[in-house]
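Hi team,

As requested, here is the filled-out complex form for the phosphoenolpyruvate run. I kept the field names the same as last time so the parser does not choke. Let me know if anything looks off before we queue the next batch.

— J.
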Amino acid sequence: MLLNKMRRKLLLGNWKMNKLASEAREFALASKPLAELAKKNNIDLGVAPTYLSLAATKEAASKDMIVAAQNVHFNPSGAFTGEVSIPMLQEFGIDWVIIGHSERRAYDNETNQKCHDKMKALFANHMVPVYCVGETLQEFEEGRTKEVVGRQIREGLEGFTAEECKDLVVAYEPVWSIGTGKNASSEIAQDICKFVRETLRELIGDTADKIRVLYGGSVKPVNVKEYLSCPDVDGALVGGASLKIDSYEELLRNIL
Ligand code: PEP
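And here is what came back:
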């Protein structure tokens, strides 16, 4: 419990392929008082816009708002058509990146190895990965959640030191609950987030107690508090309910 209190709550919106840059800017401006409120209550608040909206969001948002990219390439430059590199993000002051979101794992062949390569490059640049893990519906029904999530954690983070991982964030997102309105119960969220921390402990020792583990999957204003009441759930990664400023505000107010 004491250790849980050491970890600041984190509420991160994943906008996926939504919002024009003008809409992102409008949201960012409207979110300024929320960033202030979050800071006063020791909560980290952020959003992850598309690449094309990062600059507008960063420029319009409070400096206390985390503005994260949804992806990055592990090479600094080169012949990688359609990709964006770490220095390109850094030029705009972006130092958080979502890695291994299940949609990228499913549609863009984002393997554990690729996630590892990306996180290696991020750690080398003192940036913060939000590493997403989670099982499919079939894996859940076959009772293989811990096997799958354990492998994602081990292969994704293999060989990194505790020092490198100190700012890492992990998001447990059961694939069957993302965008479906089907929630994992808070008991499942707690059980797997605790398992994530235990697996992290095998890799990086007691630094695992400092790593924030988020739950994601159909988090809404009505259920966010229940998830965050779990001792091993330190925050939420939120898709749909983060898109409208009113709902985003409600999410925050419900965890103050
Ligand atoms: C997500 O995109 O990471 C997510 C959890 O989406 P949703 O909240 O819409 O299920």
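Two things worth flagging: The CA atoms of residues 171 and 181 lie 18 Å apart. The chain has a mean pLDDT of 96.

Thanks,
J.
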